[in-house]
Design goal:
Blueprint: H1 2-29, H2 31-42, E1 43-47, E2 56-57, E3 63-75, H3 83-93, H4 106-116, H5 118-122, H6 127-134, H7 140-149, H8 153-156, H9 161-173, E4 182-186, H10 190-198, E5 206-216, H11 223-226, E6 229-231, H12 237-242, E7 250-252, H13 255-259, H14 261-264, E8 270-274, E9 277-282, E10 289-292, H15 296-313, E11 324-330, E12 337-346, E13 349-352, H16 356-359, E14 361-362, H17 369-378, E15 388-390, E16 408-410, H18 412-418, H19 421-431, H20 448-459, H21 483-490, E17 497-498, H22 499-511, E18 514-516, E19 521-525, E20 530-533, E21 538-541, H23 546-562, E22 576-586, E23 596-607, E24 614-625, H24 636-648
Helix pairs in contact: 3-9, 15-24, 17-19, 17-20, 17-23, 18-23, 19-21
Amino acid sequence: MLRKINILNLLIYVVFLGIIGRLYFLQIIKHDYYMELLDKLNNKEVEGDTMPRGKIYDRNGVLLVDNTLVKTIYYKKVDNIKTRDEIELAYKVKDYLDLDYSKLTTSYLKDFYILTHEEEVNKRIKDSELDDYKKRKMTDDEFYILKKSRVTDEDLGEYTDEDKKAIYLYFLMNNGYSYDDKIIKTNASNQEFAYFSESNSKLQGFDTKYTYDRYYVYGDTLKSIFGNTGKITSENKNYYLDKGYSLNDTVGLSNLEYVYDDYLKGEKEIYLVRNDEKVLVKDGKVGNDLYLTIDIKLQELVDKILEEEIKNAKGMPNTRYFDRSYITISNPNDGSILAMSGRLYQNGKMQDYSVGTFTDTMTSGSVVKGASILTGYSEGAVKIGEFMVDECIKIKATPKKCSIYTMGYLNDLSAIAKSSNVYQFKIALRIGGVKYRYDGPAVIKEDAFDIYRSYFSKFGLGVKTGIDLPNESLGYKGEGGDAGLLMNFAIGQYDTYTNIQLNQYISTIANGKYRYQLHLLSKIQDKDNILLNFEPVILNELDIKEEYLNRLKRALKLVMSEGTGKNYIDLGHNPSGKTGTSETFVDSNNDGKFETESISTAFVSYFPSDNPSYAISISTPNISYINNSSSYIYPFNKTVIRKITDSMYQLS
């Protein structure tokens, strides 16, 4: 008996010892942790309203993108609100809002019908279909699509225009995350804003606030380059949450707004809520400002001339399929972009399509012959000053390949100035290891294309320029490997390039030493300090002999004074450059097949030749098309470049 009592006493002692140890652990060792946890439970941090994004300026401090206050009506779902109550609320307030109800889709009408007629729609599902769903032979999404297919036009016919207004409003109230503020309308009228401000206590979840929207000082100029802002999408949710964003933050969705969002976004005020009182613990901060390399006066000049000449060209013969052109102007000594313009003319409307300068590609024709002849020099396939006969080339079992006309006996300088195709054909065959004879076979070396592309890439052709914009296109690389295609490659009739690749190419030739990253950013600063100064980035250094580069530069200068580029630029500017024409194809009847032959043109230049300040490139797809009645090609590039260069030095 005594033994049992002793055991019981020992157990009680152990239990009390455990309790004392636990209390010591909780009250002494973990005291600070639990006090902090208690403080968090009693005190909650909340964010204030979004602060304005940083502004965007040009290189001279001219304001391009600003912020403007916007009257905004929003809806935030009340806890535990029922679907029928939200629908009633939508019907209640629909007449106090002027919304574009035409955006309501048939798909969403079906969603709403299923929501409000669930039992009826379920009866339309066959037992076998329901059985497949229960056995997981059909996913949730597939089952819901099946339900939607059972909603008929007759079902939807019961909705009046007034119903559709309420349904669209209900859609806006539930679009996105359940806990997020749903923007119902921006740029609300004074009457709308007043109603929802004064009545928000009666309208569960509806309220008003001032938000910020982007204001573009120069209208559509460069708008596609600036990019869009908006709410975080579901696809990017985790990315932004990991970076500390809130899901209702406004972020940059594309181009410069996206790339530099971390700098441009404002920082919200932080409040501590304690006993229902808000105490400011961190001030908000306006976003940092971007200064671009763009010269807005030059940009406006280029835009204006490009628009005028596109419209003029559309009145000329053979321009049925012509609808766009792209121009980039940069400083060849550091890669800074001074102007980049793209214009798209469709259905009688002109649009900013500056993004096409780095996303659209085309075969650029003879502008690449500078890179081609440097490849020939460097590979020992042609000597400086070497003469060749410009005559049609004939490979066995293939059509003849000629220059635009038979040019006779000419050297490397004349070949570039007059744009001889045959001179480049013969170099290409030598690089390919072919001993050419008329109508003989020609099997090229396996690495012939690799040799050419390796040299081209040194100048930026067929590789990314590094521009600080997303979605830059590389262009198309041909997959064939015969002698005919190699000859096409050498004259710019095979691989495709973007307009900014052409600009980087001619810039690299102009400075003669480096391929610089193209860039739009100059600096980033807040109200008081410069946070980041963009320093020129060298992507690669040229390993081409100086004598070869000097020989090419001499040829490019001849192009402008007595060759195919004559009168493109006033010789007083001391220009060097190269023209290009390529045969391309268009889908003339929108059947997905590119069956109609067309002509595309390009031009690259730098000036002054001795100490270049500007590099300019223009790409013009489908300026003409091949037909039996006329071979006319409107001199679009020549007209545009002449007007721009005649005017740009007058800018102050």
